[in-house]
Amino acid sequence: MLSYLLAIVIITLIYLLLSFGLSLQYGSVGLINFGHVGFFAIGAYTSALLALSGVPLLASFCAAAIAAGLAAWPIGLISLRLRDDYFAIVTLGFSETVRIIIVSEKWLTNGVQGVPGIPRLFSSLPVGFEAQLATAALLLLVCAAAAFTIWRIINSPFGRVIQAIRDNEDALKALGKDPARFKIQVLMLSAALAGIAGAFYAHYITFIIPEQFVPLVTFYVWMAIIIGGVGRISGAIVGTVLLMTFLEGSRFMRDFIPGVSEVEMASLRIGVIGLLLVLFTLYRPQGLMGDYTKR
Amino acid sequence: MNRTRREFLAGTAGAMALPLLSGSVFAQSEGTLRIGALNPVTGAGGPYGEGMQKMILAAAEAVNAAGGAAGQKIEIFAEDTQTDPQAAVLAAKKLIEVNEVRALLGTWSSGISLAVVPLTNDAGIMLMNTSGAPALSVPPANEKGLSYRFQATNDRFGRAFAEIAEKEGFKRPATMAFNNASGIGNTEGFKKAWEAKGGEIVSSVVYEPKQTSYRSELMQILAAQPDVIVMGSYVGDTTIILREWYQTGQPAKWIIPGWAANSDLVAALGPDVVEGIISVDSVSNEEAEAYAEYDKAYQAAMGKPGSDNVYAAMTWDMMTVLALAVEAAGTTDMAKVNEKMHEVANPDGTKVSSFAEGKNALKTGSINYEGASSVPDFDEHGDVTPDFAASFVEDGKINRRYIVKI
């Protein structure tokens, strides 16, 4: 039981790292990124492949963050010319491109067969509860560090500049600031977070396959931050925890609601999330934890 | 805002309490053998998952009706893998940790089985899958010999394709594969077997899923003038490819796996297009008594003939073989049960076709279960080698011509 709860905690924390990045991008700079899963995938494959070739896990995790961060750099350059919906289309294309490259480059990634047998974190501890607890603790630490960093960024001069980019890019340019540099920095930072999340994911599930890195992952993260409240750390946390509790909790609901088959439950799950999203955008566009002082 | 927070807290607290509640519910059912049904109810495996799950339930009912295995009734806990490795891993964790099941039955695609198998190995319980990937046979996936496969490996499918191509006298085969482990496994298996026979493949292409047209891939294949095109594909893409091929008017024969060349395909394209296609599938053991029982149960549960879902027949066999192994071991200690798996399914012993029959026969000697999906005889990797059937589409009907043994 505890071990299962820990598994949910770990997956939630991994998604939380993704939410932080996306929330920072959209909430602060106003970039609509539909390709977040691409950085997640890059992180997962980088760390998994390095670890399998004997690199220590600490180094492979750093490499995952760096690789994902660097991959965001060209995307950042594109973002200079594209705004809003157009940027969203490009990023969606980016994440699919990443996936197709992983599928095609069999010599490196083993293609659609996936990479099995990725070493676990804390493999010296007994498998099961202890190793999971250590993983969850480490993840919690990383999430806290990420949250603290983002909080510092938002409340620094740098943070005020990026919020100004979101609100009025032209005015900012007139003040002599260069929005491009800031956008790229924010993108690379949140991509690096996604890369770390990917590394945790790969070493936790121990098996990765391109099918795991479909756009649905990005949209789960979007759902989480829309429900929780965009641009706020608390919003990302609340949204992610709620979404994951709901997705996993619905397994137990079926044990209590008689007459709902597994097929119907699956449809019900997606339906409820969809309804929630519609209701939130209609009545609580700021999300649960949103900034109610504005609008 | 206060109210919202309060409501939210109450909701979270409620959600947190759910697992606790469920614990007390499950506690009432002590003294049963808990088995997990982990099937692809939604996602790509959706067309099969529901039937697979229902047949595990039906087979468990049959076991319970015969007094249970080793004196224990079987209780099934079912979860959906959503045909997604992450959802499958969490579902498997839930079944293992919360429901404390002693075996997981019926994972479908190879990606799912490969993701779940480390968990079952850690827990020391069995995983029975219907996946094709060769990696599942060997360590690390099957390092403890706890993984059993009731489906032919993709490699074996490929070998069957090659046998049929040779028998039909084809000389210039080409291959087209859906880009996933199963699709490529089929055509690679064919290539290996065909080249071992001294043949040559004139052209091959791997295509991406979910396209609206496969014309360019098809043209590339047809340019090599093949006399037969061997597919590793699914229904959706096969439908598009065959339609576009028919429009070109170039003659060619097709060898297509049974899960793609089925009645849905014929219905979608009409009899003219699909005339003469060779559909290859592992044969459910249709002459067997076990199959008749399975068919009856499938009709009752799904309202369709049992031949509709070859995987459901496999899950029926999984439950039955497992229950027989438990009965033979006389205990629900899974390490001991695992030792009996080969014994109750492999030759030497009275042939039995149901749990009730097997339970009786076990009192006097060893048994050999002859199942609904195949005569499940496990090799040293826990894999079965079913027979294959070559069926031809004639006037909109899929007629079986002959059986291929590999």
How would you explain this protein's 3D organization?
The complex is a heterodimer of chains A (295) and B (406). Chain A is mostly helical and 295 residues long. Chain A is built from twelve helices and no strands. In chain A, helix 1 runs antiparallel to helix 11 (233-256). Chain A is globular, with a radius of gyration of 19 Å. The mean pLDDT of chain A is 87. Chain B is α/β, with parallel strands linked by helices and 406 residues long. Chain B folds into two domains: 10-152 and 287-369, Response regulator (Rossmann fold, 3-Layer(aba) Sandwich), CATH 3.40.50; 154-283 and 387-404, Rossmann fold (3-Layer(aba) Sandwich), CATH 3.40.50.2300. Chain B has helices at 2-27, 46-65, 85-98, 110-123, 154-167, 181-196, 215-222, 235-248, 263-269, 271-274, 289-302, 310-329, 334-345, 355-362, and strands at 32-39, 73-80, 103-107, 126-129, 147-149, 173-178, 203-207, 228-232, 253-257, 278-282, 350-352, 367-369, 388-394, 397-404. In chain B, the strands form three sheets. A seven-stranded mixed sheet of chain B has the order 7-6-8-9-10-13-14. A five-stranded parallel sheet of chain B has the order 2-1-3-4-5, sandwiched between helices. A two-stranded parallel sheet of chain B has the order 11-12. In chain B, a hairpin with a 2-residue loop joins strand 13 (388-394) and strand 14 (397-404). Chain B is globular, with a radius of gyration of 23 Å. Classes of the chains: A mainly alpha (295), B alpha/beta (406). Chains A and B meet through helix 1, helix 11 and helix 12 of A and helix 1, helix 2, strand 2, helix 3 and helix 4 of B.
Identify the overall geometry of chain B.
Answer: globular
Poorly predicted ranges of chain A (pLDDT <50, ≥5 residues)? Answer: none
Structural class by sheet pairing and helices of chain B: alpha/beta
Principal-axis shape of chain A equals: globular
Helix run count of chain A = 12
Strand fraction of chain B: 15-25%
Counted up, domains of chain A total 1
Order of helices and strands of chain A: HHHHHHHHHHHH
Q: What is the number of E strands of chain A?
A: 0
Can you tell me the CATH architecture of the largest domain in chain B? 3-Layer(aba) Sandwich
**Helical coverage of chain B, percent range:** 40-55%
Radius of gyration of chain B: 23 Å
- Helix vs. strand class of chain A: mainly alpha
